């Protein structure tokens, strides 16, 4: 994604985030079609993914997936549930406090790890089974963000999520 020039009016608006975010939850998908493992910390490998996650060693564009905590109640409501557990949605990280979409095409840190938002993380057909009929559509627009890991390290629940100034 090409961002507008940093000195343009739109560029200034897009770079202005109200506050840092916070990492609320971490999950690893050891294999396809198995429950996620909730962990307190994970090792992020540059150009790959999280150690123990099935996407480690992939293209790097989808090295890690994130979803916004504030979207979980919306997804639950739209799919007819009282609540939705993060593991049900199969994203690696749940963050709160800042709009994830603002990190698309930008670099950001979670703790010591440097990431770059690459693309929106669209829902997959498995959401029908996970959330019931209409689950795919309930997640549309709320699926989160894919990111590549530029500098690895350990991420921990509670770490700050901070956009890097251009």
Automatic annotation (TrEMBL):
InterPro entries: MoCF_Sase_C, MOSC_domain, Pyrv_Knase-like_insert_dom_sf. PROSITE patterns: MOSC. Pfam families: MOSC (PF03473). Residues 37-164 form the MOSC domain. It comes from the Bacteria. This is MOSC domain-containing protein. The lineage of its organism: Bacteria, Pseudomonadati, Pseudomonadota, Gammaproteobacteria, Lysobacterales.
């Amino acid at each position: 994604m090409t961002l507008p020039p940093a000195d343009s009016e739109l560029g200034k608006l897009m770079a202005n985030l109200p506050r840092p975010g916070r990492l609320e939850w971490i999950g690893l998908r050891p294999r396809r079609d198995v429950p996620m493992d909730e962990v307190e910390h994970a090792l992020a490998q540059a150009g790959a993914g999280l150690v123990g996650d099935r996407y480690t060693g992939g293209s790097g564009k989808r090295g890690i997936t994130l979803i916004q905590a504030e979207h979980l109640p919306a997804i639950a409501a739209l799919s007819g549930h009282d609540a939705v557990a993060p593991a049900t949605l199969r994203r690696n990280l749940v963050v709160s406090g800042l709009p994830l979409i603002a990190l698309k095409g930008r670099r950001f840190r979670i703790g010591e790890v440097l990431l770059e938002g690459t693309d929106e993380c669209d829902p997959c057909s498995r959401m029908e089974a996970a959330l019931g009929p209409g689950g795919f559509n309930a997640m549309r627009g709320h699926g989160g963000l894919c990111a590549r890991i530029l500098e690895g390290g350990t991420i921990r629940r509670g770490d700050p999520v901070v956009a890097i100034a251009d």
